[in-house]
Every structure is written in C-alpha cells, then in structure tokens.
Design a protein that fits this description.
Layout (H helix, E strand, L loop, with lengths): L30 H4 L9 E3 L5 E3 L1 H9 L17 H5 L2
Antiparallel strand pairs: 1-2
Length: 88
C-alpha cells in the first residue's frame, strides 16, 4: 500500500522513512479540547497492516465542534513546501 505513494521503486533512505505512529488511546473529550489554539488533527492514518483507520481522539474532538469545519489536505513530493504553506 505504501508503495502507491512513492514516486519510484528505489528504497528510501533511512532518514526519509517515518514509521506510522499508533493512535493515542481514546480518552474522554474535555472542555480544553474544544477551546484553545488551532492545531492539526490526524483523522485517518495507515496502521501497520496497511489499512486506513480513523483516529478515535480526532473523531471525538470533531464531534465537539458546533460550527463549520474546514478540511485541508496537502500532498506532494519531499521538500516542496507542504509544511510551509500549511503553517501560513
């Protein structure tokens, strides 16, 4: 599955490979989760078996939001400014 997202069949260097991190255990949503500065939420991740899984903590946080929600997704090759544009 991860091969679909690579631009070539060469093996990536160890510094460019990041292992997927498992989600944090679900916790009770608190009032502090709904307020505060904006931060990214990882709604979907790829588990070690290659399946897409929804992060329960992110789902709980989104269920607390009463107003409209904007979803932003950025993809592209390495070192092309994805983080820069998202930080603006």
């Amino acid at each position: 599955m991860l091969r679909m997202f690579r631009s070539s069949d060469r093996s990536p260097s160890p510094s460019s490979v990041s292992t997927p991190t498992p989600p944090t255990p679900p916790s009770e949503p608190s009032a502090s989760m709904a307020a505060g500065p904006a931060r990214p939420l990882r709604l979907i991740y790829c588990d070690p078996q290659g399946k897409f899984v929804m992060d329960p903590e992110a789902v709980a946080a989104l269920q607390l939001v009463k107003g409209p929600i904007g979803v932003v997704s950025v993809c592209g090759r390495a070192r092309q400014g994805k983080s820069f544009i998202l930080n603006q």
